[in-house]
Design brief:
With 118 residues, this protein is an all-alpha fold. The chain has a single domain (2-117), classed as Leucine-rich Repeat Variant (Alpha Horseshoe). The protein is built from 7 helices and no strands.
């Protein structure tokens, strides 16, 4: 049921922003539910997404969840996540490292564009 709810939320920004999707991120939730919640946060960036995703990236046991959190942080281009992404770029799992490096490039590109237009 929770996975279906997350999939529905991923299609409707207004609905996603009105729901406490961040509550589905703790380690006690099934991985598929957490992954779906992370996807919604990365897609719509509701308030509190950055800190919640940083916490997931830093604490999740499952590599797939860490990878999804890194991807979502890249999608929302949150500059406060740079330190956590740098640590994740040294993760023991290749896919997590690759996604963290990609997110860092996205954030760096956004920051470079801001500096060039200033």
């Amino acid at each position: 049921m929770r996975e279906r709810t997350c999939k529905i939320l991923s299609c409707d920004k207004e609905l996603a922003l009105s729901c406490p999707i961040i509550n589905l991120l703790p380690n006690g939730e099934p991985s598929f539910v957490r992954a779906a919640a992370i996807e919604v946060l990365g897609k719509f960036n509701p308030p509190g997404s950055g800190p919640a995703l940083i916490k997931v990236l830093s604490t999740a046991r499952e590599p797939g969840i860490r990878q999804a959190a890194a991807e979502a942080l890249g999608q929302i281009e949150d500059p406060t996540s740079i330190e956590a992404l740098r640590k994740a770029a040294k993760d023991r799992k290749r896919k997590v490292r690759a996604e963290a490096e990609k997110a860092l490039r996205l954030i760096d590109g956004k920051n470079s564009a801001k500096g060039a237009s200033a």
